[in-house]
Amino acid sequence: MAISLNHSLFLRSLERSNNGVLGRSSRGSKSWVRVSRVVCADVDLSPPRYIPAAPILLPDGPWKQIPGGVTAAKGFKAAGIYGGLRAVGEKPDLALVACDVDAVAAGTFTTNIVAAAPVIYCKRLLENSSTARAVLINAGQANAATGDAGYQDTIDCANALAELLDLRSDRVLIESTGVIGQRIKKEALLKALPKLIGSLSSTVEGADSAAIAITTTDLVSKSIAIEAEVGGATIRVGGMAKGSGMIHPNMATMLGVITTDALVASEVWREMVRISVNRSFNQITVDGDTSTNDTIIALASGVSGSKKISSLSNHESHQLQACLDAVMQGLAKSVAWDGEGATCLIEVSVTGANDETKAAKIARSVASSSLVKAAVYGRDPNWGRIACAAGYAGVEFNPNELQILLGNIQLMNKGQPLPFDRTAASEYLRQAGQTHGTVEIHISIGEGEGSSKAWGCDLSYDYVKINAEYTT
């Protein structure tokens, strides 16, 4: 039976109950079919994916998209297995990304004061160490608001993995996702570690299995990799992320792992990661809720053979920064595209600001507006809500310079409302919703050189249904 991603509640219930798997239809990335666990002519179920892959939403640039996700860069392996941590079903729930060498490590974390145990653990490790060798991720339990016992669970899991890999314990980082207030099912996790390590692979399948294992209410897995020239050498950057609900720009707003084989100094890498997060994961929103577990870990193996990047101001660093931005923005857009109950992605572009920071703040304000999101879902071209959200962003601008476009339909110019084809504007929104496509909102506030983008999704009835029933 062919169905649309608009039926989000049904699909998420299917994913949680595991009564079937979701696979790509032969018609392309924006249509999906429900299939049973039998051989199906147009879906490859060997091995089962459980959920399909997200559409790739990379920005244009001097790079080539390649397969592999976190394993595309040299020196990295990954795996994802079922370890018995999920409450229902046997979808993979335990992932591992490992590096053959000590990788330069950077991390960004939630600003939520009620930070999860693995967030606290990773922050402490990265304050004292510039390298890491492995990232262990579990789904099912967030291990947040679990006190000293939850923190000890994190330590025990890291130590156990380090011992099996013959590593120092401070070379293992931990990420967790799931229900807040629940400790990791430590016994099941520890028992599964030998199988997880034995499943490590540098293949695309290894990356795909890890990307699936970290998902919760996600309808799709998110995995991206690119290849590009940096300083005359070929380097690769890849990554995976999870997120669908509890998404709001206030750090990384989800879980993710980024890998590269570029050779880069620790202090430079950490600043690059911070900049890219601000241009990507900090510019997405689904529901206004910043999670307790938000974490991005970025590892650089340095084994590409490229020249070491030791400064932020040279040409090679600008090239690598652009690659890192592209991968993180691609993943961030996939997260917003997959927002709980969403029928479309919303992309807000702001130009004419005095600087990038001010443009980003306005874009984020519009993408976060519940009224804008609800209007998009209702296919209502109510541009007044866009103007309102831009105005309360906390950025000074001349309202007589404000311009707003919905797609290529101009709604306001120089602060004045314009006559427009309301039927055509509504049809533009309807088409985006029917195809799970993108609604583009363009805003200009003046003549400045600052520009930025933010991404969100529409707000549907299903969002409330999904989260009203999350633990029941």
UniProtKB/TrEMBL annotation:
Major localization listed first in the record, in broad terms: plastid
Binding site for substrate: 216, 242, 253, 340, 467, 472
Catalytic residues of the enzyme: 253
Top EC category: transferase
Pathway: Amino-acid biosynthesis; L-arginine biosynthesis; L-ornithine and N-acetyl-L-glutamate from L-glutamate and N(2)-acetyl-L-ornithine (cyclic): step 1/1; Amino-acid biosynthesis; L-arginine biosynthesis; N(2)-acetyl-L-ornithine from L-glutamate: step 1/4
InterPro entries cross-referenced by the UniProt entry: Arg_biosynth_ArgJ, ArgJ-like_dom_sf, ArgJ_beta_C
Family: Belongs to the ArgJ family.
Residues marked Involved in the stabilization of negative charge on the oxyanion by the formation of the oxyanion hole (site): 177-178
Gene for this chain: LOC120273614
Record-annotated site: Cleavage: 252-253
Entry EC number(s): 2.3.1.35, 2.3.1.1
GO BP annotations, alphabetical order: L-arginine biosynthetic process; ornithine biosynthetic process
Compartments it resides in: Plastid, Chloroplast
Role summary: Catalyzes two activities which are involved in the cyclic version of arginine biosynthesis: the synthesis of acetylglutamate from glutamate and acetyl-CoA, and of ornithine by transacetylation between acetylornithine and glutamate.
Pfam families xref list: ArgJ (PF01960)
Lineage of the organism: Eukaryota, Viridiplantae, Streptophyta, Embryophyta, Tracheophyta
Quaternary structure, from the entry: Heterotetramer of two alpha and two beta chains. Heterodimer of an alpha and a beta chain.
Keywords: Acyltransferase, Amino-acid biosynthesis, Arginine biosynthesis, Autocatalytic cleavage, Chloroplast, Multifunctional enzyme, Plastid, Transferase
Protein name stated in the entry: Arginine biosynthesis bifunctional protein ArgJ, chloroplastic
GO-annotated molecular function: L-glutamate N-acetyltransferase activity; L-glutamate N-acetyltransferase activity, acting on acetyl-L-ornithine as donor
CDD domains: OAT
Entry GO CC: chloroplast
Catalytic activity: N(2)-acetyl-L-ornithine + L-glutamate = N-acetyl-L-glutamate + L-ornithine; L-glutamate + acetyl-CoA = N-acetyl-L-glutamate + CoA + H(+)
